[in-house]
Write a structure and sequence with these properties.
- This protein is mostly helical.
- It has one domain (13-190, 240-256, 263-411): Up-down Bundle (Na+/H+ antiporter like fold).
- The protein has helices at residues 17-48, 53-60, 75-100, 107-132, 149-159, 165-189, 196-214, 220-237, 242-251, 265-289, 296-305, 307-335, 345-354, 360-370, 375-413, and strands at residues 10-11, 63-64, 73-74, 338-339.
- The protein has a two-stranded parallel ribbon with strand order 1-4.
- A hairpin with an 8-residue loop joins strand 2 and strand 3.
- It is globular and about 60 Å long.
- 50% of the residues are buried.
- Na(+)/H(+) antiporter that extrudes sodium in exchange for external protons.
């Protein structure tokens, strides 16, 4: 194959050293969170399939909270409506930082992961619909559209710690974008009823919160009550309350007004809330959402015979990988771009397969589609678990060999001839 000329544009180019360090820090945090997520999901599965399964159901369905603003919710609902708002607040912060101050502030660099995310949302939905045409499961078309950030990054950190930072940034940005696309889908397509007055009322605490953070106010005793009020009013309006988390994250400024020392406000909040999101909110949600009674091999077969479940598995395993990979390849084809030096298309395909891990938001959309306690939702839970596991196993097989190759390259590039703490490869101009 002909080598690209020197002026050929590059896809997935190496980012800055500051970006590489930031992504490495996120990976460390999300790796721990992903492990805790798996612990929570496994604990729920074991309990729900034990002789004490009734205790799990009783705990999940325990109602806590006042009736005002419809806040008398079960613990399972508090996990999906409340704790996941923290998760999406962090996702909103991350996406805004990426596009305002990160390497993806360059539209040419941002176009690839954003377009790939769109492709990774559209094709799974199309395949799900194709499998369920003529049936009664079409309402779950969005279930396989989202990538679980914590789960995917945890797997990547274990099997691909030596992969280039550009690839990890690509997966991180892609996962954040398609999770946000999923939340937009939830807001527009999974809102059963809409109460205008609570929704309009939510604009008041959201506006005050925005003004305060734009003035760089960090006082938790002011901001947290405003955030809670905005969340409660959005929840009462009928729009899924996690939308409030995204809006609050977008409100936080990324850039400092003056070149003062210390982190900016978005970075400050991200450092505070990412451990809460990854270490508590997502694992607790996984614990309450993943507890499906399988019923042995017969029960597993029954669940996976459901057309909705088949659509979920096909969407996650085939739709995600093909949608992301083909979209990225088409961009390269029509822009006459090539992958950055040293990268190969098998790397992109491995990441595309890994993006088929659709745990957290897929389980959430499943509940919204078919009802938290419905039999079909139980089938969807099994499908999400099976599809995510298949994606993780397939991606491991593809990326493990590539990781060994990049580890050798990484050891060579890590040499810092200037002894200034920055690898020389990031200083080459």
């Amino acid at each position: 194959m002909r080598e690209p000329t020197s002026n050929t544009s590059r896809l997935l180019r190496r980012g800055s050293w500051a970006e590489a360090r930031r992504i490495a820090e996120i990976l460390r945090s999300e790796t721990v969170g992903g492990i805790l997520l798996l612990v929570g999901a496994v604990a729920a599965l074991l309990w729900a399939n034990s002789a004490w399964s009734g205790g799990y159901a009783d705990l999940r369905d325990t109602v806590v909270g006042p009736h005002a603003l419809h806040l008398d919710l079960t613990l399972g609902q508090w996990a999906s409506d409340g704790l996941l708002a923290i998760f999406f607040f962090v996702a909103g912060l991350e996406l805004k930082r990426e596009f305002v101050a990160g390497d993806l502030r360059d539209p040419r660099r941002a176009a690839v992961p954003v377009a790939a995310a769109v492709g990774g949302v559209l094709l799974p939905a199309v395949l799900y619909v194709a499998v369920n045409l003529g049936g009664d499961g079409l309402g779950g078309w969005a279930i396989p559209t989202a990538t679980d950030i914590a789960f995917a990054l945890a797997v990547l950190a274990v099997i691909g710690s030596a992969l280039p930072t550009a690839l990890r940034t690509f997966l991180l940005t892609l996962a954040v974008v398609d999770d946000l696309l999923a939340i937009v889908i939830i807001a527009f397509f999974y809102t059963d009823h809409l109460s205008a007055w609570p929704l309009l009322g939510a604009l008041v605490p959201l506006a005050v919160f925005t003004v305060l953070v734009q003035r760089r106010v960090r006082s938790w005793w002011l901001l947290l009550p405003l955030a809670a009020a905005a969340w409660a009013l959005v929840h009462a309006s009928g729009v899924h309350a996690t939308v409030a988390g995204v809006l609050l994250g977008f409100a936080v400024p990324v850039l400092r007004r003056t070149p003062s020392p210390g982190p900016g406000l978005a970075e400050h909040f991200e450092h505070r809330f990412r451990p809460i999101s990854a270490g508590f909110a997502v694992p607790v949600f996984a614990f309450f959402a993943a507890g499906v009674t399988v019923g042995g091999l017969d029960g597993l077969w029954t669940a996976l015979s459901d057309r909705a479940a088949i659509g979920v598995v096909v969407g996650l395993v085939v739709g995600k990988s093909v949608g992301i990979f083909v979209t990225t390849w088409v961009i390269a084809r029509f822009t006459r771009a090539s992958l950055d030096e040293g990268l190969a298309w098998v790397d992109v395909f491995g990441l595309a397969v890994l993006a088929g891990i659709g745990f957290t938001v897929s389980l959430l959309i499943g509940e919204l589609s078919f009802g938290a306690q419905s039999e079909r939702n139980e089938h969807v839970k099994v499908a999400v678990l099976v599809g995510s596991l298949l994606a993780a196993v397939l991606a491991t097989g593809i990326l493990r060999a590539r990781n060994r190759r990049y580890r050798r390259i990484q050891e060579e590039e890590a040499v810092d001839a200037d002894d200034d703490g920055v690898p020389d490869v990031y200083q080459s101009g």
